[in-house]
Task: structure prediction
Amino acid sequence: MPQLNPEFFVSQLFWLAVFFIFLFVFLWRVSLPRIATVLEKRQNKIDENLSSAKELQEQAMEIEKKINDQINKAKLETDEKIKETINALQEDVSSQLSSLDKDLEKKVSDAEKEILKSKDDQMKNINNEIINITKLTVGKITDIELSDNELNKVIETHKGNFN
Amino acid sequence: MAAKDSPLKQFEINPISNIELGGYDISFTNSSFAMLITVLVITLFLTLTVNTRSIIPSRMQLISELMYNFIAQLLSDTVGDNGKRYFPFVFSLFMFVLIGNMVGMIPYQFTFTSHIIVTFALAAVVFIGVTILGFINHGIKFFTFFYIPGVPFYMHPLLIPIEVISYLSRPISLSVRLFANMLAGHTLLKVFAGFVVSMPFFTGVFPLAFIVALTGLEILIAFLQAYVFAILTCLYINDAYHLH
Result:
């Protein structure tokens, strides 16, 4: 078995030491730090991206909150406006209604007054007519000239009878 | 079977150039050449693929990063935060054994991990290093490692020698495991390769098919043994920090 032949033991140990020490030092000082920097760089990049993504998410949430606030505010404002308008309209309508009522009342009372006045006038006319007719009739029948005052007195005394 | 056709012939060491230093023969051999190729493959691959240092990795860079993370994860799982400073060593060990095994899977290439002296040297480095680490961390208290708490007192005369022997046999088990796996796998491949040639007519196709399947298995074992070597090293480092 060649493995147990000590002829080349020293040579193998020597070259093993040379190559393994070279490999160890080279990897330790050159290759592994390179890979480590790459991995670290990548990890930093990932962390950076993650943190910026988080930041952006927070900003987006803030904006969303602002939008919601504004929507709520706008809703409240419109509600207020609607209420105000309804109130103003109601006031307007009620004031118009009351002014109409007043007008109507005035018109009614005016008409009543006119009716009363015309009634009085009619009554006066009727009195005059009665006086005139009575004068004429009495004059034609009796030739007595009755004065207006006398006739008025008579009519006044009998007024209740034909009223 | 003639000696030149022996399945063990592939493990023979042949000097490429004869070098002597201080009376010792340190010839550059086919084994040293395999080590050189292994080291070149590892250093060039890990350096060139990460050369661009791009945040979005190329496929090759991704392989380097995967291997880095694989061993980093292994260390942090077994040792924890203390393990970070041994990362370059464990990584070098893993890559050296892994690529050494893989280079050995190339036909006609020498497998230096199939030599007990190489695997034993690696295991001895781990064993001695871990023992020194244990004494640095715990001083003389490190010997309590062999004392198992919560066992009836009359069991200790039996258990302490067992613990000591199992501790001392660590480098042997670590090195023999890797060496024997590589030796057996390559010998088996060679034996079946011999059948392909020696069997009559077309029946040689069957051992050939078996070789193809076995090569797949051997590649798996090559990875697995490197992994086992690395994870046991991690566990031993962990033991040096936490005695039981």
In short: Chain B has seven helices and four strands. Chain B has a mean pLDDT of 91.
